[in-house]
Amino acid sequence: MERRKEEMKTATQREEEGEDEEELKTATQGEEEGEEEEELKIATQGEEEEGEAEEEIRGDDDDEEEAAAVMKKTKAKVTSCSKRQVVPGIIYLGHIPPRLRPKHLRNMMSAYGEIGRVFLQPEDSKMKKKKRSGLRRCGFTEGWVEFRDKRVAKRVAASLHNTPMGTRKRQNFSSDLWCIKYLHRFQWIHLSERLAYEQMVLKQRLRTEISQAKRETNFYLNNVEKSAHMNDKRRRKRRQDGPQVHHTAVT
């Protein structure tokens, strides 16, 4: 009986020891699993933080690129607007009334926009000589006016064409009408080239006229000299033949 009791005790002790060992194993396994889970959580958190940081960096880069693109667009718009505003426009005046001078034209056109250069073509000297006898004498035949903005020049040409120059009856040039045309793609250098060409043609014409006048004068002087020489010869012959002719007449 005592042996059985001892055997039973040893068996129970072994069972208790086995249970303790199993509990320890389970506890250690649970701790290890918890540590692994924590490590996995930390790793996943680190990966998520890295991903968020990369996304933030990408977002910052995208924002910077978008901002740079917007800045480029705004700069392009500003430059285009500035270029559009800088482009000048030129209008042509086909009729210049008497006593109208460039300063009067500048004052009249400056009310519609900023004026650059103004040029009025004076009439020829031949026309001046013909009109000296009359009471009204025109000093200019045509003109060009440069506006700083071509859009203003277009509006002026469209609104003032075939309208009275003066708004009031007693105002100067009220009986005259504007004859204005906008010159598309026309620059002031074209006008300067045209004026230089006209001056060159005028100089060439004057040279030809002067040379022709010289030839005519030389021809006239030569003829005068020849006629004088012929007259001298005739006088000499008359002097020589005069007495003989008288003697024959007496006989």
UniProtKB/TrEMBL annotation:
It comes from the Eukaryota. Residues 1-15 have a biased composition (Basic and acidic residues). Residues 1-65, 224-251 are annotated as: Disordered. GO terms for molecular function: RNA binding. InterPro entries: ABT1/Esf2 (IPR039119), ABT1/ESF2_RRM (IPR034353). Transmembrane segments: none annotated. GO terms for biological process: endonucleolytic cleavage in 5'-ETS of tricistronic rRNA transcript (SSU-rRNA, 5.8S rRNA, LSU-rRNA); endonucleolytic cleavage in ITS1 to separate SSU-rRNA from 5.8S rRNA and LSU-rRNA from tricistronic rRNA transcript (SSU-rRNA, 5.8S rRNA, LSU-rRNA); endonucleolytic cleavage to generate mature 5'-end of SSU-rRNA from (SSU-rRNA, 5.8S rRNA, LSU-rRNA); small-subunit processome assembly. It comes from Solea senegalensis. One of its GO terms (cellular component) is nucleolus. Keywords: RNA-binding. The keyword RNA-binding applies. Residues 30-39, 46-65 have a biased composition (Acidic residues). This is Activator of basal transcription 1.
